[in-house]
Design brief:
Layout: H1 2-18, H2 30-39, E1 48-50, E2 60-62
């Protein structure tokens, strides 16, 4: 399960790097969401924040402010 989660996060990073000018995703990209579902991890239990160091806007901001 941890391996699948790691794979999902790697895919998320790859997708984020490919969309440098796109607005931030509030929801997880579909491939990441699918992998989390397969691993039995609800998307509501995950917080993801991806931001390039040279940009102000995040590429992915999924529940990043949730505790």
């Amino acid at each position: 399960m941890i391996r699948r989660t790691a794979q999902a996060l790697c895919q998320l990073a790859l997708l984020a790097s490919m969309s440098m000018t796109a607005p931030a995703w509030a929801q997880l990209p579909a491939p990441v969401d699918e992998l989390l579902k397969k691993a039995g991890i609800p998307a509501e239990s995950v917080a993801v924040f991806v931001q390039r160091v040279d940009q102000e806007q995040p590429l992915v901001n999924h529940q990043a402010k949730s505790p």
